[in-house]
Amino acid sequence: MSGRDVILARIRAATGGAGEDAHDRLAARPRGPRPARADEDPVARFAAEARAAGSTVSEPVLPEDVPAAIADWLAAENLPARLAASPDPALDRYPWSARPLLTLERRRAEPEDRVSLTPCFAGVAETGTLAMLSGPERPVTLNFLPEAHIALVGTRDLVGAYEDLWARLREAGDTPRAVNLITGPSRSADIGQELRMGAHGPRRLHIVLVDEGPPEGPDAC
After folding, report:
1. What is the Cα–Cα distance from 124 to 149, expressed in whole angstroms?
2. I need a labelling partner for 34 at 20 to 30 A (CA). Which of 20, 73, 100, 107 fits?
3. How far apart are CA 98 and CA 2, in angstroms?
4. 106: containing domain
C-alpha cells in the first residue's frame, strides 16, 4: 500500500467513509474553470500572446517550407546559419537538404553557440507559452544557453489552456523529469529596475508555426 493509500484509508476511517469522495475526485481529475481566451482560435490567440510577450512568430508554414522560413529569419537577424539542434527525431521530418547552407549540429548546446533549434511538445494559447520536455533527445541547454532560440510548434500541438496541456501530457504517458514553460525571451528588471534582455536565457525567441492541416481522427471536420 502506498503512502497515498494509507492517508486516504485514515481519512475514510475517521469520516465513516466520506473520504471516498476525495479518492474519487483525485481519480477523476476534474478540471477547474477555464479562461474565455482558451476557447478562442488557438493559432491566432497563441501568436498574439507570444508576440505580446516579446517573441517573434511566423505565419503558419507547411512542413516542407520550414527550412526556408528559418533561413530567412536568420538572414534578417544577421545570425549564423550554424544551429545547435535537438537530437529529437521530430526534426527529421523536415527537408533540411533544401537549404544546404543551414548547418544543424544535433547535440546539446555549448557556451559558444549563438542559435539553437528545438521542436516543442505543445504551445499554450492563453499565454503564448511553449512547453518543452526534457530527455536524452531533448537537452534543456538548447532552451536556455544560446542567445537566440528557434522553436517549432505544430498547429495541432496548440492547446487552449494549461489544464489542456497537463491532460495532453498525461495522455502521452512517458512523464519527463522536467517540463520547461517558456513565455517570451529571457528578461529581468531585478537590478536597478532596468529591463535587461537575456538575463537568464535567450535574448531572442523565434517561433515557427508549422501548418499541419486540420486535426485527424473521427471528430475532424
Report:
1. 18
2. 20
3. 54
4. 41-210
**Single pTM value for the model:** 0.81
In whole angstroms, how large is the CA radius of gyration of the chain? 21
- The domain that holds 204 is classified in CATH as 3.40.50.10420
Cα→Cα distances 131→2, 174, 206, Å: 30, 15, 14
Cell match 471528430: residue? 219
- Is residue 49 a part of any domain in this protein? yes
- Average predicted confidence (pLDDT) for the chain: 87
Q: Within a 13 Å sphere around the CA of 163, how many CA atoms are in the beta-carbon half?
A: 9
pLDDT digits (tens, 9 = 90+) for 69-94: 999 999 999 999 999 999 999 999 99
| Helices 3-15, 20-28: inter-axial angle, 10-degree rounding | 140
- For residue 55, count CB atoms less than 10 angstroms from its CB and return exposed for 0-12, middle for 13-18, buried for 19 or more: buried
Provide the 10 A C-beta neighbour count for residue 179. 15
Q: What is the DSSP letter of 86?
A: -
Interval 18-54: pLDDT, tens: 555 655 665 666 667 788 888 899 999 999 999 999 9
Quote the number of domains for the chain: 1
**Cell numbers found for residue 158:** 496548440
Q: Determine the Cα–Cα distance for residues 68 and 118; give it in Å rounded to an integer.
A: 16
